Amino acid sequence: MNTRWRGCLLEVVETVLLTVVIFFVVQHFVAQPYQINQVSMENTLEPGQYVLVDKISPLWSDYKRGDVIVFEPPKGASEGGPDIPFIKRVIGVGGDLVEIHDNAVFVNGAKMTEPYVYMEQPTTPLNQTSSWRVPSGQLFVLGDHREASQDSRYFGTVAKSSVVGRAWLRYWPMDKFSLLDSPKFPGVPNASPVGASPTGASPAGASPAGASPTQ
After folding, report:
1. Which domain holds residue 77?
2. Which residue of 12, 84, 108, 176 has the fewest CB atoms within a 10 Å radius of its CB?
């Protein structure tokens, strides 16, 4: 092989290796694609759709009420099979008192206005627990399709350390391409972070793998 062809081959190999490294870094530290496999976030997100999960901005912009997050399913919980990540909406953050009664969600005593809930379904407890104090470093999450969701009503709060990131962009199918905005809840007061465990709730988590999954 002459010097010219050897040089061309070396450039191709270097380009391929650089592309693989960049893909690995982006996939594991910046953003990751996920496929929706279950119905617990309808109509916001439907089975077969793909979202891009932002992994890096939570390092400086903490999770807040209304964010849609992807996280590893807690022990004993499974909607789409073992090890398939969950995708839910953040309802309560550290310090919040979350209560479910009168077919609605209340945070720190204020009733949540939730236009994203599937077909305006009522929200009811999934077991005997109807009140949770969210510890610091934890999140209380619910699915938008309340009657088809395993969420914090069932498994308690989830640890932030188990969260992959926030879903911020639906990119497939193309006719559904859109940003996933977090709604505002101006009538809900903030609470000071606490370290106590929530009533009847147990923390969950670790972190998902790969690029397939959710709910």
Report:
1. 31-179
2. 12
